[in-house]
Amino acid sequence: MGRECEICGKKPMFGNKVSHAHNISKRRWNPNLKKVRAVQPAGGVKRVTVCVSCITAGKVTKPA
């Protein structure tokens, strides 16, 4: 599945790295993903890959 948040679908962004001499090469910005144990709506606990912004926003409920 690659580097993608399972809650919001955040993926890497692509752009250019520009040097002082204006030499351009491709680069990518990866989302800040963590693997956490989360409570599922159907019940039970599952390990999911979630971005930190979803964790701090409270979109993921961790088991007690």
Q: Count of DSSP E strands?
A: 4
Order of secondary-structure elements: EEEEH
CATH class equals Mainly Beta
- What's the tally of helices? 1
Average pLDDT score: 95
> What would you say the CATH architecture is?
Roll
Radius of gyration: 16 Å
The tally of structural domains comes to 1
CATH topology: Ribosomal Protein L24e, Chain: T
Uncertain segments are none
Shape summary: rod-shaped
The class by helix and strand makeup works out as mainly beta
Beta-strand content: 35-45%
What is the CA-CA span between the terminal residues? 28 Å
- Strand order in the largest sheet: 1-2
Largest sheet: 2 strands, antiparallel
Helical coverage, percent range? under 10%
Structure, described:
The protein is mainly beta and 64 residues long. It has a single domain, classed as Ribosomal Protein L24e, Chain: T. It has one helix at residues 52-57, and strands spanning 13-18, 24-29, 33-39, 45-51. The chain has a two-stranded antiparallel sheet with strand order 1-2. It is rod-shaped, with a radius of gyration of 16 Å.
